[in-house]
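Most newcomers find our protein records easier to grasp once they have seen one. There is nothing in a record beyond a sequence line and a structure line. Getting from the letters to the tokens is the skill we practise here. An example says more than a description, so a record of this kind follows:
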Amino acid sequence: MRGGALSFTIANLRQVVPRERIMTLQTNSGRNSAGEFDADVAIVGGGPVGTFLAIILGRTGKKVTLIERWSQAYGRPRAVTYDHEIARILASLGIDSENDEAINYHDELYYWKDANRENIQIVDWQSKSASGWRVRYWFNQPELEARLTAIAGQYPSVTRLAGFEAISLQQDAESATLTIKRNPLEDAESTETPTIRARYVVGADGANSMVREALGIENEDKGYFFDWLILDMLPSFDYVASRNGEPAQWQLCDPKRPTTIVPGGPGPVAGGPRRRRWEYMVLPDENPEELAKPENAWQLLKPWGLTPENAVLERSTVYRFQARWAKVWNKGRCAIAGDAAHLMPPFAGEGMCAGLRDALALGWRLNAILEGRVEPDVLDSYSSERIEHAKHYIDFSQELGSIICIADPQKAAERDRVMKADLVARNEKPVPTDVCQLGPGIWCRDTAHAGELSVQGVVEAGGKRDRFDQAVGVGWMVIGLDADPAHALSVGQRETLDFIGGQTVRIGSMGTTCDVVDAEGTYARWLSHIGATYVVLRPDFYVAATAVSPADLRRCFDEIVSRLHLVIEPARAVA
């Protein structure tokens, strides 16, 4: 920080920043010998996306300043669900979605029903995914955010500035500088405007992102707007058990009032009643603000058996569902993530999921850049990969919304007829969750399963039996099924793999020569199905390439390395 500007605000910071963080901030507030930077990365926005990114960087020792507008965490639910990929990501932090008090799941399908409560669609939210976790989990966001904030607080290189907002951003070839001030809604008298000079800046600052606006990034807007009333409830009883077989998670496609009824995560008492969520489409002739008033919310809940006497209304608010994305997600030394980069309707439950994927994709790249392994322009692949991936879920969510949000009775009747016929034709078999591929980037398009989330199975390694990520670790991996990938790669390629922090893993069945035992045969089935012997995994669990032969693996490895933009000349493969 030039001139140590933040040192003048220490007295104010004592109200919102723990003492040890103040000391870190004060120590780092002047120029330093590492290049006159206050932070390696400054992150604007301390929600789940920004905090998760701070953890990824902080656990490798990167100096992070996390700027959060509010000094007190928002104590009400927002997101309530995430998918198997997010469960896998959270597991890398030690958060076990199967056994965590803030998270639960329902061994049940997801039903869409017409006004007569007859099925028109069934979606598989019951199975375990190929990536090793259940398809769908439910959680209480305030508790999960508190957990992430606590994890970030374990890393001394992470400084969290709560109660501050970023008001301007400039960048040059070497750095990006944020100007911040106290949130005027919390401290209207403060006039201090200190600056933070960082090597990189990330905007995870929501739909009205200051960082995105400062970078001049435009949105691609699909012109999709629907207002829905969100009611988060805490019943005093077991709601699902009281409903005589009604699904725990379902969609009422009634043109009179399209309604979503889903879990809302665990309740405040372990083993006690669970939270529930109702979402009601606001009809064209209704005033959203009036509809959200508690007295009107309770009228909507009355047919569902909820009253002020047997339930607590934790939140009543109207959201405008939108479908848009930023046209580019990185410029120079700055990037955006989460709602700053994309907004999607919630019908697929993928909004927060997409944001956490952004954070992981950014995190491993920024770590590699800051460690001097790859060139800064590797961030271009963050944009190209994540934009296409997010667009898939935006389009999918909008498609679901176009089916759900039908208020015309005749159109709804035709929808029901077509969907029921399709359901009968497939013998009411549930629709599986889809597989989404990354946009162009650091993976080989001509190999099976590349650009997709990798399969994960239970393995035994080093005397430990667990899912692969927990038993072996995460990062760049070259796996060989009953074959040693270290022997398949050239000497130079092994050196390159070591340079990027990767490792080779030979996996096989019990009793064979291997590093890791394929305890349930998951990897044998997966790789046999696609006719591959080798797979290259990235730090974000996506497949960079699969290969049949050693020569094929060497070719793919070179292609991946060329797209990583290493700071050294990569060694070429030799037979």
In short: The chain has 16 helices and 26 strands. The two ends are 51 Å apart (CA to CA).
